[in-house]
Specification:
Shape: elongated
Number of domains: 2
CATH class of the largest domain: Mainly Beta
Order of helices and strands: EEEEEEEEEEEEEHEHEEEEEEE
CATH architecture of the largest domain: Beta Barrel
Number of strands: 21
Number of helices: 2
Largest sheet: 5 strands, antiparallel
Radius of gyration: 21 Å
Structural class: mainly beta
Strand content: over 45%
CATH topology of the largest domain: Lipocalin
Helix content: under 10%
Length: about 270
């Protein structure tokens, strides 16, 4: 297995979310927590072509992405800055680079089969609706039938494909070779906390923290062939941190996504 660095992404702002669209472009949510500004970047995963840079909706900070569906980004706002509840639906077309529609009365739940399922909070419970995902026009008033909505939601989750993704975990591997490699890492290095890892094509991908000084750690990533124990890749993700950097990598198809600290993303092609 070989690793070829494909993309270096350094926005000089904190990377909050990484999303991959149906058309295999990468949408990045980046935030400046000091100035309270949020921006969104989008580039083609294969060609590296920028689709948009520093997209900023009318709300400058208290806004986020619910879902990307068939080339449309569904944004939400917040009821209050310090409250997690979402409000409003803003549908933004990636290709057209414009807002298709918005609904200030309803809140997003999920999208399935061309319909946006949403709700309006009532004094007692919720009233549910479906909207056309392209136009925002009302399709159906579902009333307060939460059981039906939950059933459709569960069906949508079952049909949603995550087969192309591999995310790390901290569970104990049943693979003796993999368990042996992790135990050896722990015995040779002063590892603090859990080792996040997964196995891809019989190669162990692992992220761990080792002690540098009394109040400092280094976050490292390694790729080790589980058959012969050969290290194929060894990278420093965060050279000096006082806190654990979790969720620092994942695999999409034959692409390895590596978060280096909070402000840098490297993408490798796995051959």
């Amino acid at each position: 297995m070989k690793f070829e660095k494909h993309i270096e992404y350094k926005p000089k702002k904190q990377i909050w979310r990484i999303l991959i669209t149906d058309e295999e472009s990468v949408v990045i949510e980046k935030r400046d927590t000091t100035d309270k500004q949020v921006y969104f970047d989008n580039f083609n995963l294969h060609t590296r072509e920028n689709i948009f840079i520093n997209l900023q909706p009318d709300e400058k900070f208290w806004i986020g992405i619910e879902k990307i569906y068939k080339g449309i980004i569904f944004f939400h706002k917040y009821f209050k800055p310090d409250m997690p509840e979402h409000k409003e639906i803003i549908a933004y077309d990636v290709k057209l680079k414009q807002v298709l529609w918005r609904n200030e009365e309803l809140s997003y739940l999920f999208v399935y089969d061309g319909k946006v399922y949403c709700f309006k909070q009532q004094f007692e419970g919720r009233n549910f609706y479906t909207l056309n995902y392209q136009s925002g026009e009302l399709i159906e008033d579902l009333g307060n039938n939460a059981e039906r909505v939950n059933s459709i939601y569960n069906q949508s989750r079952e049909e949603e494909g995550f087969d192309d993704y591999i995310f790390p975990g901290t569970f104990e591997s049943e693979n003796e070779k993999v368990s042996g490699i992790i135990k050896e890492l722990k015995s040779n290095l002063e590892i603090l906390g859990e080792v996040e890892y997964t196995v891809f094509r019989n190669v162990l991908f692992a992220s761990y923290h080792s002690k540098v000084f009394d109040n400092s750690m280094v976050n490292k990533f390694t790729a080790i062939d589980s058959d012969n124990g050969k290290e194929l890749l060894n990278l420093t993700l965060t050279p000096n941190t006082e806190s654990f950097m979790t969720d620092s990598f994942f695999v999409y198809k034959n692409f390895l996504f590596l978060l280096k600290g909070k402000e840098e993303l490297d993408i490798y092609i796995i051959n």
